[in-house]
Amino acid sequence: MPALAGEHASEALHTLGRQLGMHVAATRPDALDISSVSPESLEREKNVLTEQAKASGRPDNVIAKMVEGRVQKFYEEVALLEQVWVHDGKSR
User: Fold this and answer.
1) Angle at the Cα of 38 (from 32 to 41), degrees rounded to 5?
2) Are 76 and 83 in contact (CB under 8 A)?
3) pLDDT band at 92 (very low <50, low <70, confident <90, very high)
4) Does the pLDDT at position 88 exceed 90?
5) Tell me: the pLDDT tens digits for 15-31?
6) How high does pLDDT run on average in the chain?
7) Sign of the CA dihedral 48, 49, 55, 61?
8) What does residue 55 show for φ and ψ, rounded to 5 degrees?
C-alpha cells in the first residue's frame, strides 16, 4: 500500500488503526462481510421484514422486492465491509 510506505508509515498506520477501532466501536458490526453473516441472523431478519411487508397488504411479488431491498440495508448495518465509513460518510 503506497500510502503506508516511507518515513510516515508508522503515523499513517497508527491513524488508520485508531479510525478503524473507532468505526468498529461506533457501528458494532456482527460480521466482516456479507458471506460472514450468520444464516440464522439473516433468516430471522428476513422473517421480520416479510411480516412487516405483508402488513402493508401488497402483492407477494412486491413484498419479495421490498424484502430484497431491506436485506441489503441489513447487510449495510451488520457487515463491516458494507458499512458507510463513519469518518467521512462514504461507502467503500
Assistant:
1) 115
2) yes
3) low
4) no
5) 989 999 999 999 999 99
6) 90
7) negative
8) -65, -20
**Could you say which DSSP state residue 84 is in?**
P
Size of the chain in residues: 92
pTM: 0.77
Looking up cell 430484497 gives 68
Res. 2: pLDDT tops 60: no
Q: Give Dmax (Cα) for the chain.
A: 62
Cα-Cα-Cα-Cα dihedral sign, residues 29, 85, 69, 58: positive
Contacts of 19 (CB under 8 A, 6+ apart): 87
Query: How far is the C-alpha of 4 from the C-alpha of 7, rounded, in Å?
Result: 9
Task: State the Cα–Cα distance between residues 23 and 16, nearest whole angstrom.
Answer: 10
